[in-house]
Amino acid sequence: MRTTRSTTLLLVAATAATLALASAPASGHDDDRADYRTRLDPLNKPGSEGRVRLRVEDATLHVRLRVKGLDDGPHIAHIHGIRQAENECPGFDADADGNGFVDLVEGLPSYGPVQRTLSVGLDDVGRRLRYRRDFTALDDGSAIAALGDLSQYAIVVHGVDLDDDGVVSNADVNGDGDQAADNEISMPALCGEIEHHH
Ligand SMILES: [Ca+2]
Ligand SMILES: [Ca+2]
Ligand SMILES: [Ca+2]
Ligand SMILES: [Cu+2]
């Protein structure tokens, strides 16, 4: 189990532009406050729903996330995207292998790589999520300000029970060694495009 989880975390993390641990000190003087919100819509988990509110204040990102209708098990959440790129939630035309699920990799052209992980490892577990968290850096160590306008990004909540055992845990449901198409932990459950909230 430990090995499986570690492998999965690496897979998810590998979608980030960089894993650099060295962090540049926050350099901005961004004293503006900007509010955003997202409605999360089901991608591979029908019946799920969620809302995220985000506020960028000075150099801090405040996040309030609520999701319900999930399968039991761990749910990783990310801000995905690239500045000035296509930062959208995929439709089912993104299901390139036709297996009925838009997996993490198939969705990347739409929502882009991971910029900020909102979850705490695999500790956000259960059928519903509810948390408030503050962040002062992106996953690559850059200041939050490097994201720019958050309406260029999307939020993805991962974790779908694919083998119907009632829990998100299997990183390779078909047992073929490929941990993308049928990975319960990285499988996107919901996605929402971030919008300004005035
Ligand atoms: Ca697929
Ligand atoms: Ca399962
Ligand atoms: Ca597989
Ligand atoms: Cu993600």
UniProtKB/TrEMBL annotation:
Signal sequence, renumbered to the chain: 1-28
Superkingdom per UniProt: Bacteria
Keywords noted in UniProt: Signal
Organism: Nocardioides aestuarii
Biased composition (Basic and acidic residues): 28-47
Keyword Signal: yes
Segments for region (Disordered): 24-47
Protein's name in the database: CHRD domain-containing protein
